[in-house]
Design a protein that fits this description.
Layout (H helix, E strand, L loop, with lengths): L9 H4 L2 E9 L5 H14 L3 E7 L2 E8 L1 H12 L8 E7 L7 E5 L19 E3 L1 H9 L3 E5 L3 H4 L2 E3 L13 H6 L9 E5 L4 H12 L4 E5 L2 H8 L7 E3 L1 E2 L6 E2 L9 E2 L6 E2 L1 H4 L19 H19 L8
Parallel strand pairs: 2-5, 6-10, 7-9, 9-10
Antiparallel strand pairs: 1-3, 1-4, 2-3, 8-11, 12-13, 14-15
Helix pairs in contact: 2-3
Function: Catalyzes oxygen-dependent 5-hydroxyuridine (ho5U) modification at position 34 in tRNAs.
Organism: Pseudorhizobium pelagicum
Family: Belongs to the TrhO family.
């Protein structure tokens, strides 16, 4: 495991270790690797999602410290993943329902052929040097995440492409000729993986000075003190914590289980909000029949909670 101080006092900061990881590598044996990895995770009480593809591995897992250590050690024992890095945080309870190891065409889906971060990629920038780069007037800062993520947090002065999926990003770049107006492009995402592909794509498109935040927002929030931070808001995470803040402490957002959008405490008071059924983001895009179906699901969740078990659809 790393020397991350968050792992030293789990009782104080959360009993469950959460590890976000990815690694680009040539990995043609991904299919045969899936089942043994699934079994190892289950044996060690680890849950979450890991994606395997010929281009590498990506995902987030959670579990006891020893279980996470065992899975990471197994991954790093593979020649392809010897240099794998991960980012740790804590959760007050298990943030995943099950363990899923899935085979994919890409470990992060951009949909552009022959983009290989192992061959061409932007310049990594450490969190401690990020503020200086994005404060430079010669730099355009781009958030490569999707609109529901940027809605709750973004770096000061960053451009928000307002994409629904990462597949839309290449077209957004091609349609924004103004990106050539400044010499430097600085890009960031949650943990770094989307930026690996995004900077590779930008370099292929002829952009010269392309930078990206090493370790993503998660590493920045871990290492940069709040009083020095240029981050505004919270960072969306893909588990039941919904968001994290400086020091990687759990945020205050909830998740609308109808549309999967993060919602604030203020949005919970909206007349359009009904737990598990609707929120102000999705009320107008769902029918009453949809909401009736969601209410039935929410009722089953409530019954399961009374029985002291976790409903699989919660």
């Amino acid at each position: 495991m790393t020397d991350n101080p968050l792992t030293q006092t789990p009782a104080a900061s959360g009993s469950t270790c959460v590890a976000a990881l990815y690694h680009f590598a040539t990995f043609p044996r991904c299919a045969e690797f899936r089942e043994p990895l699934q079994a190892l995770c289950e044996e060690n009480g680890v849950k979450g999602t890991l994606l395997l593809a010929r281009e590498g591995i990506n995902g987030t897992i959670a579990g006891p410290d020893a279980g996470i250590a065992a899975v990471l050690a197994h991954l790093r024992a593979q020649p392809e993943f010897a240099g794998l890095e991960h980012k740790e945080s804590r959760a007050s309870k298990m943030p995943f329902l099950r363990m899923k190891v899935r085979l994919k065409k890409e470990i992060v889906t951009m949909g552009v052929e022959d983009i290989d971060p192992n061959k061409i990629v932007g310049t990594y920038v450490a969190p401690k040097d990020w503020n200086a780069l994005i404060s430079d007037p010669d730099t355009i800062v781009i958030d490569t995440r999707n609109d529901y993520e940027t809605a709750i947090g973004i770096f000061k002065g960053a451009v928000d492409p307002q994409t629904k999926t990462f597949r839309e990003f290449p077209d957004w770049v091609k349609n924004n000729t103004g990106l050539h107006n400044k010499p430097k492009i600085a890009m960031y995402c949650t943990g770094g993986i989307r930026c690996e592909k995004a900077t590779a794509f930008m370099k292929e498109q002829g952009f010269d000075e392309v930078y990206h935040l090493k370790g993503g927002i998660l590493k920045y929030l871990e290492e940069v003190p709040a009083e020095e931070s240029l981050w505004e808001g919270a960072c969306f995470v893909f588990d039941e914590r919904v968001s994290v803040e400086h020091g990687l402490k759990e945020g205050n957002h909830k998740l609308c289980h109808a549309c999967r959008n993060p919602i604030t405490a203020e949005e919970v008071t909206s007349p359009f909000y009904e737990e598990g059924v609707s929120c102000s983001h999705c009320y107008d895009t769902r029918t009453e029949a949809d909401r009736d179906r969601y209410r039935q699901r929410q009722h089953q969740i409530a019954l399961a909670k009374k029985r002291g078990v976790k409903h699989i659809g919660s």
